[in-house]
Amino acid sequence: MLVPFSAKNEILGRIIMKALIVDDDATIREFLAELLEAAFQLSCTKASGLPEAMKEIGRNGGFDLVISDIEMPNEGEKAEGWGLAKFLQENFPRMPLLLVSGRSSLDGRSFQELAAQKDAIFLQKPFSIAALEVMVRAAFKLKGREFRPDS
């Protein structure tokens, strides 16, 4: 099993945390990546859905943080975010996962409760930078880790 890691920036002598952004909407992927890079100095990789996310995780050996939309269409499957959550829970149990969606529930089931069952944190869109930071910190804490983007 591969372990998530942070890349060391040799020029600055700092640890750069790596994040994977997974969303079927290219505009949201770009926005989140730019936001995380500017606000928290994270190095971001982007994926458009579950298959691409799994390739990136394999290629990079893991990430310090994964932020994924819950509802992304893929060959009839609408909730790819839950599939990614299950994959991470089984294969990368210490990798923090923040699940996001414009909705808060499906068929009477709260996304917050469903995320908790997958050892993940849920954040409803739209959200503020402050709310994003709080929930990212919560995702790290859930995994027994500390979010230290400025190391």
Q: Topology of this protein?
A:
Blueprint: E1 7-9, E2 14-16, E3 18-22, H1 26-40, E4 43-47, H2 50-60, E5 65-69, H3 80-91, E6 97-101, E7 105-106, E8 109-110, H4 111-117, E9 121-124, H5 129-142
Parallel strand pairs: 3-4, 3-5, 5-6, 6-9
Antiparallel strand pairs: 1-2, 7-8
Describe the structure.
This protein has 151 residues and is an alpha/beta fold. It has a single domain (7-142), classed as Rossmann fold. It has five helices and nine strands, in the order βββαβαβαβββαβα. It has helices spanning 26-40, 50-60, 80-91, 111-117, 129-142, and strands spanning 7-9, 14-16, 18-22, 43-47, 65-69, 97-101, 105-106, 109-110, 121-124. The strands form three sheets. The protein has a five-stranded parallel sheet with strand order 4-3-5-6-9, sandwiched between helices. Strands 1-2 form a two-stranded antiparallel sheet. The radius of gyration is 14 Å and the shape is globular. It starts with 6 loop residues before the first strand and ends in a 9-residue tail after the last helix. Residues 1-5 have low confidence and may be disordered.
